[in-house]
Amino acid sequence: MNIVYHQQSKVFHLYNQSISYVMMVLKNGHLGHLYFGKKIHDRKGMSDLLELAARPMSSCTFMGDKAFSLEHIKQELPVFGTGDYRSPAVEICQENGSRISDFQYHSHHVEPGKPLLTGLPATYTEDDDEASTLVINLLDPVTKIRAELFYTIFSEGGIIARSICYHNEGTQVQQLERALSLCLDLPDCEYQWLQLSGAWSRERQIEIHKLASGIQAIGSMRGNSSHHHNPFLALKRPETTEYQGEAIGFSLIYSGNFLMQAEVDAHDVTRVLAGIHPDTFSWKLEPKECFQTPEAVMIYTDQGLNGMSQTFHRLYQKRLARGYWRDRERPILINNWEATYFDFTEEKLLMIASKAKECGIELFVLDDGWFGARNNDQAGLGDWIANPARLPNGIAGIAQRMEEMGIKFGLWFEPEMVNEDSELYRQHSEWVISVPGRAKSHGRYQYVLDFSNREVVDCIYEMMAKILGQAKVSYVKWDMNRSITECFSSNLPPERQGEVYHRYILGVYNLYERLTQQFPEVLFESCASGGGRFDPGMLYYAPQGWASDDTDAVERMKIQYGTSLCYPISSIGSHVSMVPNHQVYRQTPLHTRANVAYFGTFGYELDLNKLTEEEIAEVKTQIAFMKQYRRLLQFGKFYRLKSPFAENEMAWMVVGEDKQTAIVGWYRVLNVVNGRFTRVRLEGLEPEFCYQINADGFGHYGDELMNLGLCTTDSTAGEVQRGQTPCTDFESRLYVLSAVEPEEI
User: Count of CB atoms within 10 A of residue 267's CB?
Assistant: First the structure.
């Protein structure tokens, strides 16, 4: 890992064993981009990588120099209005109304490790040898705004982390109208754009299309990262597969309004921008104040999409998630929501917990309905005090009874929301995000609390901290069930209303930070009607997130498969639920529901007392299996093998660090008749190891399993004979591979 500055050519070169990132100070003082990709040799004359040509009808910076036009130069911090007509990374409205900026090189330095970002989630290091950070200061000579650009290169993997801090070192107030975190100008447009999109209950579906001339973008203006688009983007070459070829992944560590955009210009240069969505954003920057953008992470690989994903997984699992639960196996839980909804008593909950304990479950989670006047979804939010009619001994009482039973206790909160029918609303209706004199839109009969107001955050913190401090709560499910509308804060003056969306997310982060620091051993799981805020920002505080409210095994194949493009398996909340499924009303076998849920945190979302004896026996077997293999399943190296978006069959696998053990999940949605013989080529095994497979007891060398493949042929190939077990729709199997000595087989 090196960061080199060539004084004479003014070239910066960041590189490790995987990548190089090269840029230079241009003759107008701006920072130009030269290269990002596979590692190249360092040399003093790298400034010749700058491509200049006189192009007709271009606006040029210097009189007589027709080649130096910002319209055609690749840049690190592009601005609008001085020759570059592409989308800028920054825009500042000054007191005289001008929006022109001129950020020129001022200084730079290199720091070992990686600095923290105040008030924002970001990747981190635990040792200075893990990364180095280049800090470049650019100064606008008129406004005296200093742009502090951070570039962190990690010692391993093709990772660059970027962010910008804007310092107002002048005497006038400036208005930031656009402050994106990342700009990357690529020399061509021969890429396919890959995004993760969808809606409630079908989040993070993979969509791929070819880059074309003009602007392509995804984003959110809902106040949360949203079910509809994830703050993740990948550009891959057309020939790139899961295991070979170039790809660049972009991920924004942020939970609010965001923009991920690619703009292809008339000469096929591709500009990628990522950061806070500029629409509705405006930030008043007083003299001596600063504004820090969220962190964006770029990952380059020539090892295919799976190589990109594994790099994201390692980084986000070990250097974004934090705290007590980062490296620990997650407890197997049962959640009462789909078992009872609002219809429960303390005794009913204890009956479910007792059966769960008998089956080997380790954690009981009490979901919505335990507080205030919460008999339905129209009342109670904001009143975080146990309802004595439901819980006569309060949260401390039921938690103690669970502990005595030998099972841990978890609790659901929705701290950012309030019902009109609540004591909190009756006392502080002004704490709701809404515009005075205009109607308020509701969602799920609730309104959004103004977390841009520190007083509101403090109030919610005190209620939550009191419960967590008095009761033995081991887990918190933090839900968020609607997006922001009528965005206005009664706590801010008119000229600061453009700050509400961002200040709101800063308030959410602040509450998370205070609670996780005060209760470090509590496991927090983020949730937003399922996957409405499943983003890297949340992983900094909650090492796992509820991936989707859709618990149907077939739909979860796609949701979890898409999620794995960026997020580690240990972060994916996944449960076995009742059938018919409560979202799609599909009947799927109990073993298939478990076989999908294993590739995540694993738990149950049903009333075990309603299962048959045979089903309970199967549940016990499932739990025993998960306990035996959950470290491998949650922290092993993950490989996608067959896509559910492309075929009737889907497969994925995890491999242990020492390659001694691997687990393959194989799934078929619809049954076939007189079908073909089938195999799945595996990945990540040791070619010289001999693996025994639980399904057949035979020994197979790693090279055979990776080149010929694992046999998945079943009774659908040909005619079902007497004595054969017939297959059905929604079939699945797990294959456990264990390395053995060849003579043992």
Answer: 12
Tokens of 516: 């996780």
How are the residues of the chain apportioned to helix, strand and coil, as percentages rounded to the nearest 5?
A: 20, 30, 45
Q: Averaged over 315-337, what is the pLDDT?
A: 98
Q: In the prediction, which pLDDT does 744 show?
A: 67
Copy the structure tokens of residue 274. Answer: 């990522």
Q: Which amino acid is at 608?
A: L
Using an 8 Å Cβ cutoff, are 712 and 679 in contact? yes
Look at residue 240 in the predicted model and tell me its pLDDT.
98
pLDDT at 518: 98
Residue 543: per-residue pLDDT: 98
- Nearest CA-CA partner of 164 in 182, 176, 152: 182
Residue tagged 């240069």 (tokens): 269
Is 140 considered catalytic here?
no
Distance in angstroms (rounded) separating the CA atoms of residues 351 and 609? 8
Alpha-carbon gap, residue 124 to 541, rounded angstroms: 13
Q: Is residue 722 predicted with pLDDT exceeding 80?
A: no
Beta bridge mates, 525: 477, 544
**696 has a pLDDT exceeding 90:** no
- What number is the average pLDDT over the span 719-734? 86
**What mean pLDDT is predicted for residues 625-636?**
98
The answer to whether residues 118 and 165 touch, using CB atoms and an 8 Å cutoff, is no
pLDDT(417) > 80:
yes
Active-site hit among 549, 550, 607, 714: 549
Dihedral angle computed from the Cα positions of residues 734, 737, 738 and 740, in that order, rounded to the nearest 10 degrees? 140
Rounded Cα gap, residues 580 and 388, in angstroms: 33
**Separation of alpha carbons 270 and 636, rounded Å:** 35
Reported as a pLDDT band with limits 50, 70 and 90, residue 590 is: very high
- The answer to whether the bond into 580 is cis (omega within 30° of 0) is yes
Q: What single-letter amino acid sits at 211?
A: L
CB 512 within 8 A of CB 527: no
Which one-letter DSSP state was computed for residue 497? G
CA 65 to chain centroid? 46
Distance (Å, rounded) from C-alpha 479 to C-alpha 464?
14
Residue 204, Cα to own-chain centre: how many angstroms? 10
Tokens describing residue 668: 């078929």
For 37-71, the three-class secondary structure string (H helix, E strand, C coil) is EECCCCCCCHHHHCCCCCCCCCCCCCCCCCCCCCC
Amino acid occupying residue 490? S
Q: What is the pLDDT of residues 664-677, one digit of tens each?
A: 999 999 999 999 99
When pLDDT is averaged across residues 146-164 and rounded to a whole number, the result is 98
Alpha carbons 223 and 511: distance in angstroms, whole number: 17
Count CB atoms within 10 A of the CB of residue 111: 15
What is the pairing mode between strands 19-25 and 31-38? antiparallel
Residues 6+ apart with CB under 8 A from 217: 259, 260, 261, 262
Task: Tell me what the pLDDT averaged over the chain comes to.
Answer: 96
> What's the gap between Cα 350 and its chain centre?
34
Q: Looking at 367, 421, 450, 479, which residue is catalytic?
A: 479
Residue 514, H or E segment: helix 500-518
Q: Tokens for 98, please give them.
A: 């001008």
3-class DSSP state of 474 = coil
Residue 1 has pLDDT above 90, yes or no: no
pLDDT at 79: 97
Residue from 286, 318, 361, 253 nearest 606 by CA = 361
**DSSP secondary structure code for residue 742 in this structure:** G
- Active site includes 48? no
With H, G, I as helix, E, B as strand and everything else as coil, classify residue 309: helix
Spacing of C-alpha 671 from chain mean position: 34
Nearest residue to 537 (alpha-carbon basis) of 39, 196, 42, 117: 117
